[in-house]
Request: fold
Amino acid sequence: AVVSTQSTGFTLAWFHAIVQERRNYIPQGWTKFYEFSQADLRSGADIIDRLCTGTGSIQWDFIHGLFENAVFGGRIDNNYDLEVLRAYLRQYFDREVLGGKG
Reply:
């Protein structure tokens, strides 16, 4: 099955809601307040839109890297928080979760 842009976009929206909601539970959620915004969601949606429109398989490691280093993780300065972000990326942006075989 091919991973659809819609299902990946929904996963991005879910992921974005989770990282924002964790800010309400400092220090259990994140160790400090991080300013995740709608711009992060839009940037992520642009990346997904570009990567899911092709007929080839999605490079999940590429998406993880962009989200971890540029979109969401670029402002995280705590190693524990970065590991939490990586765990969420691995959990949600995965071909097994999204149903694709790429």
User: Anything to note?
Assistant: The chain is about 60% helix and 0% strand. The two ends are 9 Å apart (CA to CA). The CA atoms of residues 52 and 99 lie 13 Å apart.
